[in-house]
What does this fold into?
Amino acid sequence: MNSKNIYKEFISAKNGSLIPVLNSGRTIESRYNPEREAETQIQNFEKKYNAFLILGIGSGILMNKLKEKYPDSLIIGVERSNNELNFLFNNKYISGLKDSDNIFFTTIENLQSELCEKYLPAKYGDLKIVEQRNWIFENQDVTEIIQKQIQSALKQISADFSVQSHFGKIWCNNIIHNLKLLSNQNNNYSLITALDRNKTAYIIAAGPSIDENINTIIKDTNKIVIATDTAFQILQKYKINPHIVVSLDGQNISYNHFMNSKKMDKTIYFFDLAGDFSASKNVPDENRFFFVSGHPFSSFVNNYVNNTLPSLFAGAGTVTISALDLAVKLGFKKIKVIGADFAYLNGKSYAKGTYLDSLYNYKTSKINSNENNYDKLLFRTPLEIINSNKYSTSVLDSYKKSFLSYLSINKLEYVYENNIYGIKNKIIKTELKKVENFNFIDFMNYLKSVSIEKLELSLLPLIAYFRKYNNYDENLEYSDFLKLAHSFIVSYN
It folds into this structure.
């Protein structure tokens, strides 16, 4: 991008306000009364907003007027480059905004990342994009870049908000009920300490390549098997009892993975605190452990128990990475990951033996075959052809990128052959801490007494749910949503 400064000087408007002049000779604001112009511009907004993206900071008068009218709103001002920002910071209107908590300045280059980081729809509601006409005209050469940055950011934000609004209430419900299970629970930590870290840890996901690599798992007698929840039933059908099973999903369907778990008292179960509680309550109490993976309410709970719950990385939301992270943090030096295909192989979405086999067989009829049910699953989202036998989707691709990013960030060397990741781990072993005497009633009383401000971040996914599904007045204040979410949580008993 051309690093030219699009501003050349400041001049005084007729009312005495200092405004910048563009290289073309135009100004962003009125040369007569820019304050009145900004007030009129705000009055003409079609509704009340609490988040603003201003394309063209100019004098900063519009940003100041927005701050005066909506003091708690998010305001992001965009300029072409740091050259423009440094020039504009000489203006008192803008320099006075730099210390405001909810006002930020960014460049076109950093627009996408800044918007993704700062704009939270659950907190602020809809975003108002204000295009300063003369600023846009001055930056015609980068207009396409600006639009792509905004569109990419809003696509990512929208996807995140969609997930939060869909799962907000489910996650909250799961966390509360899982905390009841955690209360005064006496875990059998000896099961974990007894694991031989010199053996190879096999991380088993449920991808189709398990079918071709199952013998590799069976033949290796010097192994510790860590299964993802979907792969759990697959392994049982091959008479392989995992040492550990990891579950992340918050949906009730996860219960299907653990229908026979009560009989397996030697297996260790790790559940995300926001994971499905109907699954977690169906395993032996002393073998059940919880972890946190990024949900803000789970993190709040973990802080309450002095961070004694293990924190496992989930990336874009795949349990395979959480299982791998557990193996790394337990100190296994040699790790093999099998079934992490992040793709559909030979027309198959999963390996043989998942709960879907039973479910789809039950639904099978003359006009609705088993194959038809799997095809519906396969084609539920647009497919990307990788080769003649391999297909992917945008979601699966995001899982793969997240998986590879985890390997890179943690400096884990790996070789990928025959659909198996062979990984070398040099991270020092971290033993799990014990959660001492957690009491559910005491925690709930604490939630009732703590200030809403301390709980704010924890409540955002639940607020996202309320914003989308409860048809509240669009002018309802954010503080009202906070109170609503707080009262919802403390009403559990």
